[in-house]
Write a structure and sequence with these properties.
Length: 136
């Protein structure tokens, strides 16, 4: 069941599975981050287990967009959950490699249809479940 959770200027947030799966379409940037962050935190608080965030149609416009992902990852860890990035755009994948977030954020190659998500090659769960320099 997909429902629109929030729309802002140039961005939409859809809930695919309450508390477990969401999709962002549009631009994550300084003008959209405050409300988007609040909406994502509500989605995170409403579920258990992995929160899969589909980003194929999302564009990270600036550092604040990456900050939303890092902040959500940290909040998920505090709730004994894991943020999983699904279907990241090529640009977002490049940004994550440049900033080394690919070592921190869990990612999957495709849709989270049934069973556990398939982790991308070369990524370990231990490496993705913590921020370097912080205890696990």
């Amino acid at each position: 069941m997909t429902a629109v959770a929030w729309t802002g200027p140039g961005i939409e947030l859809f809930v695919d599975s309450p508390g477990r799966e969401a999709t962002i379409r549009g631009q994550l940037g300084v003008s959209t981050v405050p409300e988007l962050r609040a909406q994502l935190q509500r989605i995170l608080a409403a579920g258990e287990g992995d929160l899969v965030l589909h980003l194929r149609e999302a564009e990270v416009a600036d550092a604040t967009g990456l900050g939303v992902l890092v902040g959500l990852h940290q909040r998920a860890r505090r709730q004994n959950r894991r943020l999983v990035i699904a279907e990241a755009s090529e640009r977002l994948e490049r940004l994550m490699r440049i900033t080394r977030l690919h070592l921190v954020l869990a990612r999957v190659e495709g849709l989270h249809v049934a069973g556990p998500p398939r982790l991308q090659a070369g990524a370990s769960i231990a490496a993705m479940s913590s921020i370097p320099g912080q205890p696990r």
